[in-house]
Amino acid sequence: MKRIDVCLSPEMVHLHKAAGKVVVVIDILRATSCMTTALANGIESITAVASLEECKVFGEQGYVTAAERDGKKVDGFDLGNSPFSYQDGSLKGKKVVVTTTNGTQAIVKSADAKEIIVGSFLNFTTVVEYLRNQPNDVLMHCAGWKGKMNLEDTLFAGAVVDALKGDFSHDEDSVLTALNLFYTAKADMMGFLLNSSHVRRLQGLGIIKDIEFCLTKDVYKVLPVMRDGKLVAA
User: What is the mean pLDDT of residues 168-191?
Assistant: First the structure.
């Protein structure tokens, strides 16, 4: 039987051996939610980079630039990290380069994977069905916050593991942690997350509507997948 594992932070991914696996990168608030929204709304591709400097270089080549640090848009770049900014029709067909505090770091650290896809609640069922119907082991790679685990990414990982019961086996405590978190929170995810560190951080920036949107299941049917160094719609 195929196996599924959960990495709670990019700082731990070297312990999980991504090679040969499909890695699902998860940054619910808000990078992977933005990537899902972008590709669902007709953006051609997304290039994820680790640094602001790399992002600027792509910008000089005609890419739309998106940069976030500590939840805030970085001055001098076109976009920040709100999913609503990617619903702008003028971006359709454009190439975007993005760097964020956590999500793009997790993508960069998943480079050894057989395949990288992006997961969010916005494309939850699409992710689950893809994983169920492909032949490889899976690693859920939570972006966390600056190397530490966080609740919302772990909660999503647990929701996926729960949905795939019977299709995958597991024996790691990180998987049980994610599962039990999901069982505790599933009746009211927003209420459960209100006291989480990142929700409080984002609430302080006045973007509660972003949080609510990012916790909404199955808004889109798109599957962002890495192809030749760029995320595109599968």
Answer: 96
